[in-house]
């Protein structure tokens, strides 16, 4: 996503709120979760030499920008906690999908990881 699109989207989100203290906890949780998932996806892509790694890195940065734009004072700790939990959960799915010796389990983990990633990327303007 281009920097202009990201900043425009962040501006729209921020402008739609009356004050920074009214940031939607759901929106913060969503952006934190997606930032965590993109971190795990990016690191996994590096591990397996996936050429899409730079794309995941860009999407991760986009979600971090959106998270910063919607984060109200006092929400930082909860957002970081959710981001880390999402990253660990997504990394676990990717590990199972890639290294499990049970094809059925690997397929299920791959499908869940893909679904979680799609739920994030569908929010971006250039997807």
Structural summary, described in words:
The protein is 76% helix and 0% strand. It is built from five helices and no strands. It has helices spanning 3-15, 25-47, 53-70, 76-99, 103-121. The radius of gyration is 15 Å and the shape is globular. The N and C termini lie close together (8 Å).
Average pLDDT, rounded to a whole number, is: 86
Could you tell me the radius of gyration in angstroms?
15 Å
Structural class assignment: mainly alpha
Estimate what percentage of residues fall within beta strands. Answer: under 5%
Task: Report the count of strand segments.
Answer: 0
Write the layout of secondary structure elements.
Layout: H1 3-15, H2 25-47, H3 53-70, H4 76-99, H5 103-121
Helix pairs in contact: 1-3, 2-3, 2-4, 4-5
Write a concise synopsis of the structure shown.
This protein has 127 residues and is an all-alpha fold.
Features:
127 residues; 76% helix; globular; mainly alpha
């Amino acid at each position: 996503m281009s920097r202009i699109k990201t900043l425009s989207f962040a501006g729209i989100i921020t402008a739609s709120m009356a004050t920074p203290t009214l940031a939607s906890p759901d929106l913060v949780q969503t952006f934190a979760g997606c930032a965590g998932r993109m971190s795990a996806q990016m690191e996994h892509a590096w591990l397996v030499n996936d050429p899409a790694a730079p794309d995941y890195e860009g999407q991760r940065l986009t979600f971090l920008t959106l998270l910063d734009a919607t984060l109200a004072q006092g929400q930082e700790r909860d957002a970081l906690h959710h981001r880390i939990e999402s990253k660990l959960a997504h990394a676990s799915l990717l590990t199972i999908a890639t290294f499990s010796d049970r094809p059925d389990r690997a397929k299920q983990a791959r499908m869940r990881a893909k679904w979680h990633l799609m739920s994030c990327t569908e929010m971006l303007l250039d997807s």
